[in-house]
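Q: Structure tokens for this one, please.
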Amino acid sequence: MWHDGKETALVAPKAKRIGVYLDQQTGLVCHLLLLTVSPMLSQSSSSPSRASSSCGPGRSWAVRLHAVKAGRSLEQLAQSVAEEVGLENHGQIGQLEAHYLLCQRLENTADVDSALDGNPHVLWHSQEHILRRSKRSLTFNDPKYPSQWHLHNDVKQGMDVNVTGVWERNITGVGITVVVVDDGIQHTLADIQPNYSPEGSYDLNSNDPDPMPHPDGHSDNHHGTRCAGEIAAVSNNSFCAVGLAYGAKVAGIRVLDGPLTDSMEAVAFNKHYQVNDVYSCSWGPDDDGRTVDGPHPLGKAALQHGVIAGRRGFGSIFVVASGNGGQYEDNCNYDGYANSIYTVTIGAVDENGKKPFYAEECASMLAVTFSSGSRQLRSIVTSDWSLQSGTGCTDGHTGTSAAAPLAAGMVALMLQVRPCLSWRDVQHIITYTATQHDADARADWGINGAGFHHSHKYGFGLLNAWRLVNAAKVWESVPFLVSYQSPVLKANEDIPEYPKTLTHTWNVSLSDLRQSGMQTLEHVSVTVTIVHPRRRNVDIRLVCPSGMSSLIGARRSLDVDTTGFTDWTFSTVRCWGERAEGQYTLQITDYKESTLSSGVLKHWKLTLYGSSLSHQQVKERRRVVEDAMGGQYLDRSFALPCPPGIDVPSEIVSPFTSSSLKVCLHMVPSVLLILGVLSPCFRKLTPLGGGA
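A: Here is the predicted structure, written as tokens:
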């Protein structure tokens, strides 16, 4: 439970500032007053010290004495009473005036209670007995819980998700449903069944309501069950392990056990989205170091639709894994799920807090959490299917597939204390609370213009359940999303050979932003079309006005594609919280092979996403978040008001295009639905075009 000392220390410096404002005269008066009072305090606190020693089991009495007669102190009266009944006076009990501890001598066998009953100076007395008290700590009878180092790491301080303090405050994900979009979940398993949500589940491979995985001779379909166990495995059932959000419900959408189409993916992203709060997706395009792919038009539209209409207007939360192609130099900016503004992209670290060999890095990654590492390091202990050769429990869950469900579980804890968090609120809170943990120079940490640390390897840092939940408790919803988009900037220029760089800039002025009201950034996207005979040779960077640089298009040695990029969108979160106005610089370098022709930048486009939060408001939110880290808002009935959620009727919601989305993202869905305004907006949405 490393949350207590570490997090409370964050607010301690506030107390030190009080004395700064005292003038010399006031300070002198206070000093003299302390000199006067301190001997009294010292005397008062030291006088009852004798009562702190024990008399031995069954040989002590607590007594309360009558008011003192003139000329006789309470101490003298207590001494007199003790002698009269054959006991020893061990002094006042703490700071309780007229209450004394009297102890029986070993040789004294007199009836003490009768003697005290008959003493005129004793108002009340009670023989003391040994009380049974235990330290308030969490204990689980699940046999594998002691091996779940990612939940409580007694060996390496700070190398766990820091969740036990949250559990101690009865925050376990109650009332929240996390759906695992995967190859199914074995919901009959002892660790899953009590927390299983059939209402949130479906089998898109077999087109029925039951997402039970099917045994397969070529592939173990246990992936989804393992992810579900990480999130919500039942506690104290004497079976296997404990889920991070063991009070939450878990559902399953079976979609990966067969051919997957764009339409199936779209259905999966929005299936039962008024039941399911968080979608955990531990999958993506091939992690082979040469694939450039992501959601297709229907999948994109479903993600956009989910963050608007899901969860009764507060929006679905999509958590995705960054990918396991690190050993192939793959990068999650070539994964359209991981670089989407609508998802929470999570990478992995091992039990030492280091990036494992398989973990991908990118400028669009939000944060990391724990998973497996090299062979000598531990993997994740979780539930497993019991079909084929499975035992219902495993200590071998690995990859970013294991990291994303842990993040989804932490989001469930956040939603329990603040149900109206939107997908952007969750992204902001992660940005504000993730911790910089690897000080190695190779970790590539940079500090942006808003003071946030970011690394291409670790995002904004390590997820910390204690920090996430405390921040969620005091979080005020961010203003609505606004965007700015440059025109398509035609170039048709050859990309020079390294060390030269092709540089293009675009200036965004305050007048450009005035209509939208954008002041600070969240996501920044660049869409490029580049013709190139060997895609692996291209290096693409974006520099924000603050000077913060993002490697958005990393070189991949296995990517021998001969076509380049066609309207591919890269993104970065490294400029989060910075001022939006200023000059943006695109830098492209060609590590050209002598036998190949030069690449050509055909055209590019800049898109900014942000809000009306000012630079000063970002700083103030950071202060509020840090001030909440002592846990004081979790220990009392403190709650910021949440607007009521509203069910969005399906008949008034059409698929979104990017243009129609901009119109409705400028509105506050819950309020406008109450007023009946949003319905016409949804009706006017244009049918889905060729590219959402």
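A few notes: The mean pLDDT is 86. The CA atoms of residues 266 and 299 lie 4 Å apart.
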